[in-house]
Amino acid sequence: MTTTFQPPSLFETFCTATFRVLLDCMARPGTIGQIPEPSMFTNIPTITIDNQPIIANRFALTSCLSLLDQETRFAQAANSSWIDPHSDISRWVQLRSNCRLSDAANAQFVYLWDSASSALLHELNPGTLTFPEQSCTAFIAVPEINDSEPTWRLQGPGIDGHCDVGVHGVVADFVTHINATRAHFPLGIDIVCIDTHGKCLALPRTCQISLK
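and the corresponding structure tokens:
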């Protein structure tokens, strides 16, 4: 009997590389990772909120998509409103991941199209004292992440003392919304911020954030 080697698809290669970046960033908060180019996705639908079209951050959306499968529950929001699970973009995600579309309270993964939608983080599942690992993970699209113009100071496990990073173009109360999700540790929401160039910054619930 002979077998034929089947090389991984572009999407499988992307998912594997992206998972490694996310894992490294989660283990070392403050580390700025680089999400690989999602070249296989060229037709991501735009959405319209209040008659204004919003273009997807394809690095952020596809990074979240790479973790979805038929056993995961998913929701997304833009401009501080949850997106209809019957919308074109919801069907687009489901078709490519086979995930289950969900309401916010039951979602295991959430994609927020903008920092303004961080006002909805309090609606997500923070886990329980018995099973804190069953909390939601939120991917948030932001305009820019860098380490040359720091705006935040991070402290916590995985950080030697403290780490300064720059997250730019976000709403003024972005950090307040994030910190509110981790006020009752070990409950909380793990967060991944990804900018328009694929720069990735993970903020696990153990990470303390202050403004510089």
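(Above: one complete record from the training split.) The first helix runs from residue 10 to 27.
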